[in-house]
Design a protein that fits this description.
The structure holds 2 protein chains of 2 kinds. Chain A is an alpha/beta fold. Chain A folds into 2 domains: about 90-345, Aspartate Aminotransferase, domain 2, CATH 3.40.640; about 355-470, Aspartate Aminotransferase, domain 1. Chain A contains 15 helices and 13 strands. Chain A has a 7-stranded mixed sheet, sandwiched between helices. In chain A, strand 2 (about 165-170), helix 7 and strand 3 form a beta-alpha-beta unit. In chain A, helix 3 packs antiparallel against helix 10, helix 5 runs parallel beside helix 10 (about 330-370) and helix 10 (about 330-370) crosses helix 13 (about 435-455). The relative contact order of chain A is 0.13. Chain B is of the alpha/beta class. Chain B has 2 domains: about 70-80 and about 345-450, Aspartate Aminotransferase, domain 1 (Alpha-Beta Complex); about 85-340, Type I PLP-dependent aspartate aminotransferase-like (Major domain) (Aspartate Aminotransferase, domain 2). In chain B, about 35% of the residues lie in helices and about 15% in strands. Chain B contains 14 helices and 15 strands. Classes of the chains: A alpha/beta, B alpha/beta. The interface between A and B is large, with 203 and 210 residues.
């Protein structure tokens, strides 16, 4: 099979280097350059071995490397839990307005009013979307939002003289939930989910005691279903003095439909790089603002953007604050993009987002239910989870199916997550994909299900059209080669 | 129809028919009725592209951007030159809209650029390995403190007073849960007082000593001496460094650092009012399995062809959950890509020139500014591109007055250290011209006269 028309390319920047070549032009110095400004003691003895390339070398190299990637702009990306929707180009233009792009974080507030106002308004808009009383925009990503949220919960209990030591988290949770909670100094207690990924209320009730600081849960859950008894759950927790945290990774399902604050949650983080269209960038940056109810406000990270008369200012005088998460005020570049998106969509547009996200996921689930096992009966919300256990009987795993999809021109669903589903394939189409694309994807999935029975070898061999075939992970871990060194 | 959505009403009907549901509303039946939002969200109505662009331009115009203003601000974020080629390359949708490279066969572009980035950072810092990035300089230092405590089994970290106070603040937040105690070693002369540090670095309790060079006040620290001091007590040495400077300054690894962290924003990442930034994190090889964050490694595919994958993932939260080395998942990969393209473009010689130019201009500026009566360097130690001035009048007032001439004259230090209430931190990059520096000096002379 042809390799998608991409010529084989296996160079690294270092391997293109030619001594003396240069890709930059800096002005000649207009001040005296004397070697003694920096004493020899502090100077580098051996020059750093960076590549020497022309500007065109750089452009061709990174253009070629980019073509070895699948992105949302080029491929359908049904990666569950990641909300790989279209990232509007307008957002990029707005984030590149010089007043946002080239504003120094310590510029005096009098000359940062535009940025501060945008942040303040975004905080108010996110609070409305989530039904929360206040929002901190500082966390750099979802995991940092979790850390901030759990630390605020801890500070809240401490302020009431309560020393609670445990946090309950379902076994279906994202890995960051237990990791962030442990980092905040808590013991993590895993709560078993039932086959539909739902919380068993009796189990939860048994675990809730005066040592429990919080219950952390993803809504809709990681099987893509709305937790039907969520109101009972939050009430039960509150009755025991337990704070309830909502992982907002799946917020794309519920915009304008229901709100974490109205469901009884005390804390909820937002992944602006999921629901609010800031690009994933190959792994980041994201932004993970955290919304809270009023009783947690004294503990917000510092500084907080506040409006005083008609001016905006950074309020540092917050003695009960949990502190800072990153050096400055948040990933402002991402905040500008999210603000642009919310203003573009408006309230009706956001509601349509969730309606279409839910419709698309249910459509995919329906079209695939004959050929794959559905992990939990529908209707689902914005994503659906299938199991490849039927295919596994023919020796074809979820990973094989994912790899075969790459050959058929699609990125893969999330695989082996949630952990509670055997051979999980988690599919999140998002609202920005059209029916035609979903049909092509479903046709490919059905084709693979047939191949699993008739020609499993073909699926095991996949991918064969990508720049490289399956890679030796064991070798990578056993003999770590983490930096380039000249060959030979 | 909203332009980011794709299904027409007719397509929606066809899909519902396949599903066997009468309406989208019917698909939402599991959301409890009493929890449904009975009204539209209270948000501004949708704005057209034209209207929104005009409004955003007006908002942006309320900010003193470094294109229209002369920027002498530093303290961790710097107005270095960003070659235009970077923006063109990162905006390629294949990079820009890709996810974390968990499917390596379809992510070789991202994986290769991260491997290049790791190599460049390791090379610059003089370390064996670098990770794929942490959020920013502050959270990188916090992660380094946690890692040092975990590696040594000790519970205190001693920070030199010259460490950026904002980074210290972040580190304190991260160290609260694990109950790691932070102590401060004084720097009365602008650099770490080694004798005082020796009494604080404890052979049983201290996990790491942290120094920053150049430090928050701009002064260059003696890294080798700090390394010797830390190692004598069985502690690690963590060095906070700005990688832009490392074309000229010695890599901290060569001087004995065990972990090097820092803010990589200067490597082609726009200031963006303080984020997203680029948290640099590098370490000695022996520590690699305790590192936070993603790592890319080289391997081979089924045909024996070279390929790249995320590796040593059993350190990470998606595998190890509560026992992971860090909670980090999303990092700042795209900023790391900017840095990689920056370093490929500037290359071996260009980064040296950026450093030499910045240092020369900073020293010229210091000389010009200290000719003004009453203005002096606060500390005698050598500096690089940033220095602390002592002023005869309130730095806040000075900064306010300079705004009238569109000069961002520096960062008053009162907010960070009351003892430095009369001090202004001034940074000078290769972008500042002699004429701009002279205009700054003339304006300052008038303000303090």
């Amino acid at each position: 099979m042809a390799k998608q028309g991409v010529p084989s390319y296996d160079k690294l920047a270092f391997e293109l280097s030619s001594p003396g070549r240069q890709g930059y032009a800096l002005p000649a110095s207009d001040v005296p350059v004397t070697g003694d400004a920096v004493p020899a003691k502090y100077r580098r003895r051996t020059p750093a071995a960076l590549p020497e390339l022309s500007e065109f070398d750089v452009v061709r190299h990174y253009s070629r490397l980019s073509r070895m990637n699948y992105g949302v702009d080029t491929h359908f990306y049904p990666l569950g839990s990641c909300t790989m929707k279209y990232n509007p180009k307008l957002n990029e233009d707005m984030a590149r307005l010089p007043g946002f792009l080239r504003l120094h974080p310590l510029a005096p507030e009098a000359v940062s009013q535009g940025a501060l106002r945008l942040m303040h308004e975004l905080g108010v808009m996110l609070a409305e979307v989530a039904g929360m009383d206040a929002v901190s925009l500082q966390p750099a990503a979802g995991a940092q939002g979790e850390l901030a949220g759990v630390l605020m919960i801890r500070a809240y209990h401490a302020s009431r003289g309560e020393k609670r030591t445990k946090v309950l988290i379902p076994d279906s949770a994202h890995g960051t939930n237990p990791a962030s909670t442990a980092l905040a100094g808590y013991e993590v207690i895993e709560v078993k989910s039932n086959a539909n990924g739902e919380v068993e209320i009796d189990d939860l009730a048994r675990l809730l005691d005066t040592d429990v600081a919080a219950f952390m849960i993803t809504v809709p859950n990681t099987l893509g279903n709305f937790e039907p008894r969520i109101l009972e759950i939050t009430e039960l927790c509150h009755a025991k003095g337990v704070q309830v945290y909502m992982d907002g990774a799946n917020l794309n399902a519920i915009l304008g439909i229901t709100r974490p604050g109205d469901l009884g949650f005390d804390v909820c983080h937002f992944n602006l790089h999921k629901t609010f269209t800031t690009p994933h960038g190959g792994g980041g940056p994201g932004a993970g603002p955290v919304g809270i109810k009023a009783h947690l406000e004294p503990f917000l990270p510092t500084p907080v953007v506040v409006k005083k008369d008609e001016a905006y200012t950074l309020d540092w005088k917050r003695p009960k604050s949990i502190g800072k998460l990153q050096a400055y005020w948040g990933n402002v570049g991402m905040l500008v993009r999210a603000y642009t998106y919310i203003r573009t969509m408006g309230p009706d547009g956001l509601r349509e987002v969730s309606d279409n996200a839910v419709l698309n996921a249910n459509y995919v689930m329906k079209r695939l239910e004959q050929d794959y096992d559905v992990a939990a009966p529908g209707p689902c919300m914005h994503e659906c989870v299938l199991s490849a256990r039927r295919q596994k009987k023919h020796g074809v795993t979820a990973m094989d199916i994912a790899k075969r999809l790459l050959d058929l021109g699609f990125y893969a669903p999330s695989t082996y997550f949630p952990l509670i589903v055997e051979e999980a394939l988690m599919i999140e189409p998002t609202e920005t994909e059209a029916k035609q694309t979903l049909d092509q994807f479903c046709d490919a999935m059905i084709q693979i299900a047939r191949e699993a029975e008739s020609t499993p070898g073909l699926v095991h061999e996949a991918p064969v059209t990508t720049p490289v075939r399956r890679l030796d992970q064991t070798k990578a871990a056993r003999e770590p080669d983490l930096r380039w060194t000249p060959r030979g | 129809m909203q332009r980011y959505l794709s299904n027409t009403p007719a397509e929606q009907r066809a899909m519902l028919e396949t599903i066997g549901a009468p309406s989208i509303e019917a698909l939402l039946s599991r959301v409890p009725a009493q929890a449904r939002l009975a009204r539209p969200l209270r948000l501004p109505a949708a704005a057209s592209e034209m209207e929104l662009v005009a409004e955003m331009r007006a908002l942006a115009a309320g900010n003193a951007d470094a294109d229209a203003w002369t920027c002498f601000l530093g303290a961790g974020s710097y107005d270095h030159f960003v070659p235009g080629v970077i923006n063109h390359m990162i905006l390629r949708g294949e990079f820009f809209t890709a996810y974390t490279p968990y499917q390596p066969e379809a992510s070789q572009g991202t994986l290769r650029t991260i491997y290049e980035y790791q190599t460049m950072i390791a090379e610059l810092t003089g370390m064996d390995v670098a990770n794929a990035s942490i959020y920013d300089g502050g959270s990188s230092l916090a992660e380094a403190a946690l890692m040092a405590a975990s590696v040594t089994g000790r519970s205190e970290v001693v920070l030199a007073a010259g460490v950026n106070p904002l980074y210290r603040h972040v580190t304190a937040t991260y160290c609260d849960g694990p109950r790691i105690k932070l102590r401060t070693a004084p720097a009365p002369g602008g650099t770490l007082d080694l004798d005082a540090a020796r009494t604080l670095v404890d052979g049983r309790k201290t996990a790491a000593l942290v120094v920053q060079t150049p430090n928050f006040y701009g002064c260059l620290e003696d890294v080798a001496a700090a390394a010797e001091l830390a190692h004598a007590a069985g502690a690690l040495l963590i060095v906070v460094a700005d990688p832009v400077n490392l074309g000229v300054l010695e890599g901290p690894g060569t001087l004995g650092a065990d972990i090097v962290v820092g803010e990589g924003q200067g490597l082609g990442v726009p200031m963006s009012y303080g984020g997203p930034n680029l948290g640099v994190f590098a370490a000695k090889k022996a520590l690699v399995r305790r590192m936070p964050g993603r790592l890319v490694g080289a391997t081979v595919d089924l045909d024996g062809q070279r390929g790249f994958v995320l590796t040593l993932q059993t350190r990470e939260q998606h595998i190890r959950r509560a026992k992971a080395t860090s909670n980090i998942c999303t990092n700042v990969a795209l900023c790391a890509l900017m840095a990689t393209i920056y370093l490929s473009t500037l290359g071996k010689q260009g980064l040296v020139e950026v450093g030499e130019l910045s240092a020369a201009k900073a020293h010229y500026a210091a000389e010009r500014l200290t000719q003004i009566p009453g203005v002096a360097l606060r500390f005698p130690a050598p500096f690089f591109k940033e220095f602390t001035l002592k002023l005869p009048v309130s730095p806040d007032r000075v900064v306010g007055k300079l705004l009238k001439q569109r000069i961002l004259g520096g960062v008053p230090l009162k907010r960070f250290d009351r003892a430095l209430g009369d001090c202004l931190l001034v940074a000078v990059t290769e972008k500042r011209t002699r004429a701009e520096i002279d205009a700054f000096a003339d304006a300052l002379a008038k303000v303090v006269a």
